[in-house]
Please model this.
Amino acid sequence: MIKAILIFNNHGKPRLSKFYEHYSEDTEQQIIRETFHLVSKRDENVCNFLEGGMLIGGSENKLIYRHYATLYFVFCVDSSESELGILDLIQVFVETLDKCFENVCELDLIFHVDKVHNILAEMVMGGMVLETNMNEIITQVDAQNKMEKSEFSSFFSLYRRLSFSLPGRTGRHRLVLQVPLLVPCLP
Amino acid sequence: MALKIVKGSIDRMFDKNLQDLVRGIRNHKEDEAKYISTCIDEIKQELKQDNIAVKANAVCKLTYLQMLGYDVSWAAFNIVEVMSSSKFTYKRIGYLAASQCFHESTDVIMLTTNQIRKDLSSPNQYDTGVALTGLSCFVTPDLARDLANDIMTLMSHTKPYIRKKAVLIMYKVFLKYPESLRPAFPRLKEKLEDPDPGVQSAAVNVICELARRNPKNYLSLAPLFFKLMTSSTNNWVLIKIIKLFGALTPLEPRLGKKLIEPLTNLIHSTSAMSLLYECVNTVIAVLISLSSGMPNHSASIQLCVQKLRILIEDSDQNLKYLGLLAMSKILKTHPKSVQSHKDLILQCLDDKDESIRLRALDLLYGMVSKKNLMEIVKKLMLHVDKAEGTTYRDELLTKIIDICSQSNYQYITNFEWYISILVELTRLEGTRHGHLIASQMLDVAIRVKAIRAFAVAQMATLLDNAHLLTGNTQRNGICEVLYAAAWICGEFSEHLEDPLSTLEAMLRPKVATLPGHIQAVYVQNAAKLFATVLRGQEGAPADRTVAQETSQLLIDRLPLFVQSANLEVQERASCILQLVKYIQKLQQKDVEVAEEVTALFAGELNPVAPKAQKKVPVPEGLDLDAWINEPPSESESEDEGRKPKGKAVFAKEESKHTKPRYTEVDEKELAKRREVRKAEQANNPFYIKASPSSQKVYQDGVGVEHIPVVQIDLSVPLKVPDQYVKLEEERRQKDKADKKKKDKKKRREKGEKGRRRKGDSGPESEEDITPAHMVDITTEEMPENALPSDDDEKDPNDPHKALDIDLDKPLADSEKKLPVRTHRPDEVLRSPVDDGEGVEVVPELKKKSGKEKKDKKKDKDRKKSKEEKKKKKHKHEEGENLMGAGSEVPVQSEDSNEVAAPPPATTTNEASDLDFWLSNAPVPSNPQEAAKVSEAPSASTPEAVSGMAVVPPDSEPEEAKDTEPEDTKSSKHKKKKQKKEKEEKEKKKKKKHHHHHHHSDGAGDESVQNGNVEEEEPLPPMSNYALLAENSYIKMMCDIQGNLQDGSQVVVSVIFENKCDSFIKAMEFNVLDSLNSKLQRPEGAGPHDGLTVPFQLPPGISNEARFVFSVQSIVMPQKLKGTLTFIVKTDDSSTHEKLDFKLHFTCTSYLITTPCYSDAYAKLLESGDLKGSSLKLEGVSQPFHHLLARICFHHHFSVVERIGSCASMYSRSIQGHHVCLLVKTADQTVSIDAKCDEPGLLGNVLDEIKLTFSQC
Model:
């Protein structure tokens, strides 16, 4: 089971948090802070697993993370998940984001956290891996976005166009996706 | 109205949307909180509007704020409103918000039930999907109960997208509503073979998750998973399954044996590291579960260790980490194989990566020996110095202590060294583990007598330097060691060189800043020291002033503690203060008081085992649940504490002895009380007396001269451990020299030691290192007559505990629907073939075994279970166990019955027969594979004893012959028995029980399910393997089943049994194809070529092979002629032989037991697509449930519903024809009304049913 999925940037600002067990808002923030504290002080070329310790449910759990450019993607999982499998899942997740947002960068996650949630929902459901095939994920996400568009009259679409064109795409730095694949990808 | 909407929309344009909010927050870095609070106010306004779009926008923003840590639960109702919007866009926003902030105690959740149900059944798959996703995050027990049925229906949705989500969410439903597990499980299992890989993977996911918590309930799925494992190419699925097997093998060692080969193959072949790693892990689990008896056992370990070494040496830190992790698992059972890689692991301790260092530390734990302990700890101490970050340092600290203290300090040869290590560790700043060090100090000082003098000296130094430790008192836990130091100095004060100065150190004003419980110990032990000082000085009357000065010191300093806020400190201090004042008075009168004061603390304290209290046996005649007084009347109170509990009773017992408190007690009274208490204690069985036993033995048994003595200058203050290492080296040298002289005596000593220390099993060379101190470690005291008990109590709050449900029991009618509304007593169908799970099983081979006699007794009080059937029986037992119908039928008539057996009954899935599956070499499901697969070296170990069919490895037929003489002898016997298997089905079930004892203790908990069968008349025995052909050399039994996956295939499983004393090899199976049915041959083979049977048969052995036939029409029954050719090889000659047979494909064999829910069944009948036919059977005298069971078993039907003497049944053909039966019985007449969409098929099936009943 995946217990939580956290995305935060190099300064510990949360960009997405998904807890599959309930915690109070304060606890959640504390977990994010602690996780950031643990993860951020690690060198680039150390292993991507961390024993969770006090976090979420104790010693049975592990933190598995990857660091892409300005963002950390952290999965907190228990012993039933394969460590290397989750690493690959993170890679699939990021690559999917890259496809959906076209060269994803931190700003996309900042302004469209709801979309990121929707993409994530097609991959992981209630803490269990739902789909690992990137094309399948993208197909479903696209189909839903299409449906969303079709629900709006022209008036609304005007509004939407206004609202969606706002965040400027200047000065953004791409997430480096060419992180060398450390392990052979799962199919 | 329209205008209003437009106006509202225009207004909306001026609302902030999520992007505006985010931007706003980014622009207000300085006053973020203030900005957000204004935003929340705006959101509250927006939520008050009628426009759902505005609300949705507001909720969307709230979701973002929730992520930033703001509580948004106040908007829960608005979230529900947005969820119920008809627009997908808003609905999705609503569900997302709900999934982020709803939880079990959100009260509005109960309003959502109907909305969610509506969304689940929405025609739009994404509405359903979004609802499922949301629900997976906030499902509550109520929601789970109310929606379980809806979700179960979705598991069979046409869209794989919905199916996979529905399957996954079932896990959450099970957790919240465990009652749903059993009814839903058959369908879940079905999904393992779903055509869509996503759904399949989801089902694997859920079952693995379930099985991880309660593995024993899922053992029966092993064959199915095995099949998936060998056929799947999806690494995600493979990893899950392999992980699952890792959890299952400890329960069923035979499973492990079966797994080793395919896993080893995967290890060799896969390129995916993740898969390789999981395979290695599971192989390790298998090897752990097989304590011995694997021929290539060590080879497998070597393979694993070797692969792991490659991982550890990899430059990828992730692999290194995982390699170490897996290595530590091997370490537990095969420390030797790991110890040879010590170099590698020590190297990892220097890794820059903390996670890797931690893993390496774990491994070190198992690698220490007497020889290298000091070296390893020295290395660790260096790391402690270097370590940055308290977590890692703390971890190092605990590891050092763990390593040293493991198995009762087994590896410590010099306790002075250990004490100095502990003292050294107290210098760590900011560690959390002060109490750990403290408890080690206490433990060592109490249990190792010889070390006390040294320990006391060290502790006194610690106390003297207490200010170093308490520099930043409150926040660091290291001051805990002062607790130990004070106690040790006080308790063993006779060893103190200068008790007075230590006393002075303990009464410094700074002490008052320590935590209360430590102060309390200080005060108490100050009194002990006081007693020692007095005694030391009274001998010399000249120093009387010193004694009085000491009293004065106490009187001066103690008031500080009397003022303490801590009650314990206050109480002790005031008590002791008064005592000292009194003593001072006496001293002024020149009265000798030392004796009396010392008597206050007389007696020795012994360590008590932590479980001692729990193990106190309940005295005979004491009923803990009985009322002591008349219970108060119900109305008086609803206090839950009314019932006395076991523990409470003992606690009270103890409290009897506590004396009432006085602030002032005079000496006499104290002494008197002490006497009384001693007397009481002497009579009290619960009081642990200072038993001289262990220590005495130690002192008397080993002469003092044999205790190796170390010359150490005790006055040396805090020492560097190195000194001790050197000293220890010297000592060892000296010992070695001495050893030659005292060889004889030494040996005696060793014997002594061996007895006292458990698990002292180091290699021979280690034994040479004699410990510097004998360790009085063995006995932590236990109450007399302590009850042996295992207290691995499970956490009662574990949600998974509720899911410990037997899934193999067939579903009772009442369970088929969810939620369980009604119960139909007595209508539980006792057919073993109900849902395809409990399918009857093929007894294959039985052997005589002497052991069975012993088992007979067990038989009598056995419980029964049906998850597995066994294949052994014994004539003796038959007589005893026969019950009901079975015993009435003479063996002879059964025999003839068998010959004219009804069409071979088949099972829908081989999974049901776990034992059968486990006892055989893996048989590939089609001949192509069969031809390729070399024969699996199946185990021939414990099975032989209990009579399992055994396939010895190809390569060693001779050996097999030797190891199993019993088999050969009993082969003829077997043949006869096989015919009788029918009548013995009942008994098999029973015997199965002790069969369990043979093979797996883990599977001990069996269901009582079949107990009911006994009460009524037992079912008539049934078998699904029918005789195909036999001659004097070989016998063929066969079973024909439709192939679930492929509508045009039929699988024929043939059991070949060697009946002669010679070796049978080169078997070739050939069938003359008809137009309709063809044997599937490997590519390139001609249409008339035979198929090689992929194994050979030593005498008396049987094995199973499967052959796949493709059929076009399934409407008519068919017969195919075939021949088996083989070579019989005796010692001096070999002959070609052949055996002709006729394969009979009945229409029944095209049917597959398929569970059907009554609602679907009703729909099917209503649809009008089915054509009817009917059948009347006269003179059927068997009970109705037997009749049903027969139809289920022989003809692959399942009962949909049964009411009284009427039942509806269902089955499906491999090509998807529905067959429905309505069976009624009255006065020995059975009428069957049948409906099917293929009348030809139906007619034939009915004919076959008729035939079945005409034969019984």
Summary: The radius of gyration of chain B is 39 Å.
